[in-house]
Amino acid sequence: MSGLDNLINISTLERGLQLLGAVTAASTVFKVLSLARLYLSPSSISVNRWKHGNPYALVTGATDGIGFGIAEALAARSFNIILHGRDRNKLEARRATLQKQHPGLRTEILVFDVLKDPYDDIENLISGISHLNITILVNNVGGIPFMPAYINFTEFDSSQIDAVIDINARFLAHFTRYMMPILSKNGPALIMNIGSAAQIGVPGATMYSGTKGFVLSFSEALARECKISKTPVDVLNINLGDVSSKSTPTPVKFGNPLAKDFGRDVIARVGAAIASDRNTVTPHIPHAILFGVLKSLPEFVKVAFMRNIIQDARALHRKIFNLKEE
Ligand SMILES: NC(=O)c1ccc[n+]([C@@H]2O[C@H](COP(=O)([O-])OP(=O)(O)OC[C@H]3O[C@@H](n4cnc5c(N)ncnc54)[C@H](OP(=O)(O)O)[C@@H]3O)[C@@H](O)[C@H]2O)c1
């Protein structure tokens, strides 16, 4: 190769590296601006996008924790509320609390046990409220519906496998399918699916992680289907780490907000998420930071970190729920 060829090759390599550097820098600036827009600047779209007519928001698993926190935050923004749960007395009590906080608010309740009632009844359940102007659906019901919750996959029996799939994934899919025509008719409408940072794959919570991976992919795919078919329904996966609630009684500290405060974060952030064309959002800033760091760690550090997390979660459950040492 002649000296001239070498020179040309080096300058081509330099130009290539410069281009790569420019693309990387531009993509980093874009990501930083997009995050700043999401978390810091007032959004051109707020939850008011879905507040038209006499709007109702339907929240599943709304008698406790995050579901009730989101219901409270939506009621504070003048949405009428449909509370879903399995316990009629608890639903009536929560309904009374909301109405005391917001006289004039309209509320409905839906009683359906996601683990016991037949899914063929969902259509009938929904037909009782289909005349209402429901513009927001929050698919929140979920979790690990047995104790001890954090067991290894090999310890599961088949009914436990089914229960985790039913409460986190199967009910969500069936309920959403029946709700889609109603939301579409009432558009612009919004579906928020409460996912979990466990979608990353947490040992000791294998089934739960898998179903939250389903919630993420399901939300992203449905969001894109709606964009392509111009169905006026926005769809968002809500990603989160620990939130202090009935089933996750972690002490409130940095990164572990109260369910009520987390509910406010969700409602504050959904408009900006849709404005920036996202299909998934992590509404609580400390969760976003921790999740970002966790994702970028090398695998062996992730394994060590998650081993500690699950040990702590098991110890907390043993203490709070009086479980025996495994
Ligand atoms: N808290 C966290 O740290 C955390 C983290 C990541 C993701 N998440 C997700 O956030 C969502 C809410 O969790 P949470 O911590 O707020 O839970 P929670 O405090 O235990 O509340 C769960 C809600 O679901 C209802 N529910 C439970 N089993 C039901 C059934 N079989 N049929 C109908 N309703 C049922 C409960 O009703 P009862 O009042 O009758 O029990 C309650 O209203 C879940 O999808 C969970 O996976 C939570």
From TrEMBL:
One of its GO terms (cellular component) is endoplasmic reticulum. Gene3D superfamilies: NAD(P)-binding Rossmann-like Domain (3.40.50.720). It holds the Pfam family adh_short. Signal peptide: none annotated. One of its GO terms (biological process) is fatty acid elongation. It comes from Exophiala viscosa. This is Uncharacterized protein. InterPro entries: NAD(P)-bd_dom_sf, SDR_fam. Belongs to the short-chain dehydrogenases/reductases (SDR) family. The keyword NADP applies. Keywords: NADP, Oxidoreductase. One of its GO terms (molecular function) is oxidoreductase activity. It comes from the Eukaryota.
